[in-house]
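User: Quick sanity check before I run a bigger batch. Here is a single chain. Can you write out its predicted 3D structure?
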Amino acid sequence: MEEYEQVNECILRIKAGDLSAIDPLHTLIGMRLHFVALRYFDVEELQEDAVQDFWLNIEKYCRKFRFVGNGVAYLTKVFKHQCLMRVRQENKRRGEIPLSCLCETLDRLGTDEEADFHAEALRQSFAKAQIGMTERERAVLACLLYDTSVRDIADMVGTSKSTAARLRTRVLDILQESLRKDGWL
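Assistant: Done. Predicted structure follows.
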């Protein structure tokens, strides 16, 4: 049996109330979650906290699982979302939110059907910012969501690198202004 099939089976068993399936699930994807946490947190204690919080709520996550064939991707996505929210909360506590974190959150929202209230509010903040942008600036925003370099932005938009850099700066200013007005920054 393939790994993803074993994960799907464990998720479905947990969803049905069989909590003995948590240990095999942990064996299957536990290390993967540690690698994801490493991407978001520099301190080992924060990585461990994020992973432990995930496992504390695993029953809730499994109940929300709709069988689509890839439980590994589902649980990884849930964990990434949890990590992003932790990073965002910590940065908000310190008074700073990296724009890349917000862009990644917005990008993730593109297909997330169960976006919560805060995620929807963030999406609306980005939408408000886009209202004041030109077509070119919106194209640059789309490039920023995928962490595109200025050189690649220039190629995609059809401008020089210096114009692309100015457009990028303008888009970031518009986004930051909008996000600041809505209380994200």
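The mean pLDDT is 82.

User: Great, the batch can go ahead then.
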